[in-house]
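Dear support,

We are seeing what looks like truncated structure output for some complexes. This example has two components. We would appreciate it if you could run it in full and send us the complete token output so we can diff it against ours.
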Amino acid sequence: MLTMKNKLLLLAASLATAVQVLGGSITIKGSDTMVVLAQKWAEAYMQKTPGAKVQVTGGGSGIGFAALQNGQTDLATASRPIKAKETENCIKSFGKRPTEYKVALDGITIYVNPVNTVTQLTVDELEGIYTGKIKNWKDVGGPDIPITVYSRENSSGTYEFFKEHVLKGKDFAASAQTQQGTAGVVQAVMKDKGGIGYGGVGYASGVNRLKIAKTKGGTYFEPSEEAVLAESYPLWRYLYIYVNPAVNTGEVSSLLKWIRSDEGQKLVSEASYYPLPASLRAK
Amino acid sequence: MTEETPEQRGVDRDWSGIRRSANGRPLEWIAEKMIQGVSFTAIAGVFLIFLFVGKEAFPVILSQTDSRLIQPIIPASQMATTPPEVLQRYLGLSVREFKALDQETLKDLMQAREDGSKDIPEYARSDPDSGVNGSGWSYLLTPHQWSGYDRPQYIWQPVGNIQKFNIIPLFVGSLKTTLIGLFFAVPLALAAALYVSQLAPVRVKEWVKPGIEMLAGIPSVVVGAFALLVLATWLQSLFHYEVRLNAFVAGIALGFAVIPLVFSIAEDALTSVPKSYVQAALAVGASRWQAARDIVLPAAIPGVFAAVVLGFGRAIGETMIVLIVCSAPVMSWNLFDSARSITTTIAAEMGELVPGSPHYRILFMLGTILFAVTFLTNLLGDFVINRLKRRLEGKR
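Here is the complete output from our reference environment:
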């Protein structure tokens, strides 16, 4: 039988190993949009390189930047570029600006209820709908149903993207109903005849996807890979990974390089985002 | 001969004259002190949490935060000619932090600030509101006519180039959902408590009581999801209102969370009314229902009131249900419009914030206010309960 002292020693030893394992692993933290993608990368990378350990957590792009600044994570994923204030905080804490890597592309998709006959909108019409100026579907060539606007929580990177690129800085209508995740938006639009929502392309099941044109009279595009890569679909964005230049060595830097290689980019399509064009990939 | 007092003898004697001092029972003394310590830790814990939250909120309360879009910029090239104190204040550093950074890092920091101001898009820069500090008290509480609006409005739009932090819609949202929840839950819960404790046959009671109390075991996430997917559709087909997810649905769902709490406390209070009261009432010819309504309920009123006060605390503090069901910060007292409660706002927005930013501090201030509101309600509740008790006991 173990004596008390031995038990304590054993506990200490196991704690020490646990700490060691944590010390040897790479952590990725940040954007909720990118959790699934980062998880896929982590799994494939760990399979490919024996001994490598990659841990992935979400929380939001802002959380990722905060963790990067405190040194709690090696890589921060983000669905929006870093803000000036966050850059400043990083400089304050580790003396350098974090290095930015574009790692994938995303097309923001507009969802409507399947009974809605509207199939296409311009960016201006979207702005009108989301700021509350257009209140009925008949104003954009649809049935006589009042529009219910669904949006994401304002902590989401997608929300900020939409506010900046579609609403051009204007406020969302106060009646826009916010949902916690893209799945919530899709769920709500599915249940609501007059509903409209936005989110990632991979989530659009049970709802219709709209074609979007930059201006009235322009060509309407589906958020397909070709349209996003050619920048003809108006609502697209990059997804990023940020890293402290001081830790961008050894295993971390080879993981980053692998993510941007052809092999890593193949997983991007599997997570229903769009891979980087060849010019941005790592050689 | 004079009688020795207990202190003179160094021994505590209670009214019965038996020695019960620490000297006699050291273990009991230790246990007692430990329990005492734990109870004080709880009070200290509440106090410390309040202190922590209050500390983060302090700059807002003193109007020291600045959420203006266009801030004065000192170009990095002028670093050498700027006095260090000005530089330190400009970069928002403490004296120690400032001393710890070398010149190159400082310059980079200034450059980052300068670049940040250049990144502001033109449409926002030329906005007449770009110099407005939305985190001042007048903007927090009174309506303001922002550019692009045709009249002064209460607006909570904390994310974006021009941040709008009016907290009134959030208070309206919290009140709306809480009151609907209470109006739905309290009558149901009290009626159920009265029935179970006074009128129900034992067999029925054995089923109903655990049944209602089991409601308390349902996590609020599940209640919220149920409301989002099922309840909202039912209620819409029943009342035919326009907005599917609104304060009314959230309030009813909140009610489900409040019912078991109010029920079990009220039921305990009603059950603890001495049986002799009912027997006396029945003996003089009252029906069971009259005895329950006119004798038991008034006798148990302090406990029943306590149940309602706790129910209010639960409803106003509940986050998840309202967060899932509705969260649009509409300034409207219409029950069938959407609403966004204070707790929802804190939970949904806290994660993405730069610590120390005006938005971050305002969320902490909302937390402080919420804390104060629940504290005052409980205090007031206690006061009323005490008065009711005294009246029941015949002391005025």
